[in-house]
Amino acid sequence: MWDEGSTSPKYLKKYKLKNMIKKISLILLFMYSISIYGKELYFKPYIRYHLPLFAQNAPNYFNIDLPINQSGYRTLSYPIENFSLAEGFKYGGTIGYAFDDVIGMELSSDYFSTDKTFMNGIINWKLNAWNIIPTFTFSMKYIKSSVIGKVGFITGITEQEKSIKPVWSTSSVSYKFNKNISVGYTISIEYNYKLSDKLAFAAECGIENTFYTPTKAELTNYFNPNYPIDYYSTYIRTIKYVSNIRNQQTYGQYDGSSTIYLPDQNSAQTRIKETLIMNSLFLGISLKYNIFKK
């Protein structure tokens, strides 16, 4: 039988109710403080189109090693110059707060996805990124319009998948890279035009630069999709990316005159970390809704 102690249903219900009341009170207090001391609180859904500004040599991330009898392995590598994934639409929303007529802050959240092929379809690259962007704003206001300069810091979660399909193959080798933190910055200029007391149209132009470095990759396909992933060795299934490689576990010896050492197939493959750079110029539009404005 339950008592009135700290683990009773009645106590837990009261505890949850008190917590809820406390959170609601804090939200109301925050809103009240904004209404007294702040100049403006607004929300903006937006859409942007990104174009590559600078390119890089594509991160390699993995090679395809094909066994050639007992003479070793042939390594297939497909380097790409002038590479960028920073092209496509980005969708998001912004909560903004103006301290006065000049200085303000915004907090944005957005999503970006791309799926591109290179080298006449040999390489396919997919990427998804979810970002949070706190931004400082500096405004110059006119009668029905305003010009706003912005500087922001980007932090988010990015994941990607890379596939290589050699011209002689009907299938591909694919690895999916782990979700990892991506960081960067954004600088932009926004023009607002007042449509009514509550609504304004906004157009924005700026640059973004983000950096993503995976730490691990897992095999998703290896030429023949009929074979399960567990069929392949750990060395093929898993890649770990590290800052430096001091030694490599090896094994194997074919004959007395020629000794060939191969990687340990029971351990994950290790490679040096490589960073994907997303540098872009963007153009965006949004509709600004004033929650309150003094």
List the helices and strands and how they pair.
Elements: H1 9-37, E1 40-52, E2 64-67, E3 73-76, E4 88-98, E5 103-118, E6 123-141, E7 145-164, E8 173-194, E9 199-212, E10 216-222, H2 234-237, E11 238-242, E12 250-251, E13 262-263, E14 269-272, E15 276-293
Parallel strand pairs: 11-14
Antiparallel strand pairs: 1-4, 1-15, 2-3, 4-5, 5-6, 6-7, 7-8, 8-9, 8-10, 9-15, 10-11, 12-13
Strand/helix succession = HEEEEEEEEEEHEEEEE
SSE class: mainly beta
Report the β-strand fraction as a percent range: over 45%
Individual helix count: 2
Into which percent range does the helicity of residues fall?
10-25%
Give the overall shape. globular
Mean pLDDT metric: 83
Number of E-state strands: 15
**What summary fits the major beta sheet?**
8 strands, antiparallel, barrel
Q: State Rg.
A: 27 Å
The stretches of 5 or more residues where confidence is low (pLDDT under 50) are 249-261
Oligomeric form of this entry?
Answer: single chain
CATH architecture of the largest domain, by name, is: Beta Barrel
Number of domains: 2
